[in-house]
Amino acid sequence: MHDFQCLWVSTACNAFGMQMQNIARGWLIYDMTESPMALTWVMLSFMLPSALFSIAGGVVADRMSKKRIMIISQVLNAAATFILAYITFIGEVTFWHFIILGVFNGAVGSISMPARFAILPEVVGDENLVNASALQTATYNLSRILGPVLAGGLIAFFAAGDTNSTYGVGLVFFIIFGLLLLSALLVIFLEHNGNPKSEPTTLPLEDVREGFKFVRDEKLILGLMILGFAPSAFGTAVNFLLPAFNQDVLGGGPEELGILSAGMGIGALAGSMLLARLGDFNGKGRLMLQAAFGWGVAIALFALTSNLYAAIFFGAFTAFFHNLFGSLNMSITQLATPRYIHGRVMSLTLMINGLMPLGVIPIGAVAEFVGIEAALMFGAAMLVLIVWLLNVLFPSIKQIDRGHQADGANS
Questions:
Q1: Of 8, 113, 254, 301, which has the maximum CB count within 10 A?
Q2: Which residues contact 5 (CB under 8 A, 6 or more apart)?
Q3: What are the tens digits of pLDDT across the range 186-234?
Q4: Are 202 and 344 a contacting pair, CB within 8 Å?
Q5: Residue whose C-alpha is closest to residue 24's, from 146, 140, 148
Q6: What pLDDT is recorded for position 411?
Q7: 46, 103 in Cβ contact below 8 A?
Q8: How far, rounded to the nearest angstrom, does the alpha carbon of residue 168 sit from its chain's CA centroid?
């Protein structure tokens, strides 16, 4: 299918670029500041605008061409990356540059991501959505394997052994710029424009109210959205603390950080490939909850490791359960949402996910004043506790059998 191939390759370029950027940015920020809270603030600078503006992105996705939205936003992200690459290359980059560009990229992403999520069911159809989502996720996780290794290796290679050099990181950012620009160009070849089926007859503010009312009234959707957000607010601590864990606990450099991230990528890829193989299987809700509990246990075991090989092993299991849980949550939410309001529901999902810093801030503070290991253990404990509470509050979630029957669970 031509359109899905273009969308898939575009997603791959974007994913590789973002994974490489995470490693290069995380390494440089921690090398400049030696502060876990600095990593936290940069993450906040991206996620808070995503939360603030994502509902507007959902309204735009339901009222305009999704293809056009993706092209414009991807070009803007590529341009911002070029600026970051240049100021890093010439050695003028500061911590505040990352904050400013994080805010910009977060705002742009809040417009583009609802469109990217909403166009997928239109391109592949509901019957292929679970497999297509799993393949997209597998591609993303493949980028988690190869992207960090590539970024870490290139930083070391370009810096000629001086891994503190902004010159090497700047060259890596230029490569990332090329990948993001290619991602935008590939979207141009989509034949499906993702236009709304009819001209909007309501004001944008009324569309926003309709989106909130839909989520409020559909208890299953509300439960799935909260379940997708609350555990992740604490479970994603592994991701943003990885540069600090690598340097302070394992004593590793950029190459070790890349290898550690790649190990987690292998685990995440295994989770998405398992989901793709299972397809539209029975018992999705129960498996999703079991994966969430497994995620918390894996984080606790990861926190107790003190050498690279053990960290790779338990990091892979952490990513496996994280990805299995997240992919199931997103797929079921998409299948249970009517097409006319899809963009707004996806934007509300992104907005809620943008509130993850509520969990990141206390974890970052624990890491700063107590230690990285204590912060990860705290995150794991909170994840397990929250999943248990949501299992009690929304019993219909574990009763979800097959994705296409999610609507029926609302009644």
A1: 254
A2: none
A3: 989 888 887 776 666 566 677 777 777 887 788 788 888 888 877 877 8
A4: no
A5: 148
A6: 37
A7: yes
A8: 26
Residue 161, by phi and psi: left (phi above 0), alpha (psi -120 to 50) or beta?
left
Which helix (H) or strand (E) element contains residue 326?
helix 308-335
277-301: b or e for each residue (b if 16 or more CB lie within 10 Å)? Answer: ebebeeebbebbbbbbbbbbbbbbb
How many H helices and E strands in the chain?
A: 15, 0
Measured distance CA(374)–CA(378) in Å, rounded:
6
One-letter amino acid of 1: M
Residue type, 134: A
Contact (Cβ atoms closer than 8 angstroms) between residue 311 and residue 302: yes
Query: How far, in Å, CA of 95 to CA of 29, rounded?
Result: 7
Lowest mean pLDDT among 46-50, 102-106, 266-270: 46-50
Phi, psi values for residue 222, rounded to 5°: -60, -45
CA max distance for the chain: 62
- Cβ-proximal residues to 206 (8 Å cutoff; 6+ apart), any chain: none
* Cβ-Cβ contacts under 8 Å for 382 (sequence gap 6 or more): 234, 359
With the CA atoms of 270, 275, 276 and 278 taken in that order, what torsion angle do they form, in degrees rounded to the nearest 10?
A: 120
State both tokens at 340. 């006319």
162 alpha carbon, distance to own chain's centre: 31
Amino acid identity, residue 131? N
Give the pLDDT of residue 203. 65
pTM value is: 0.65
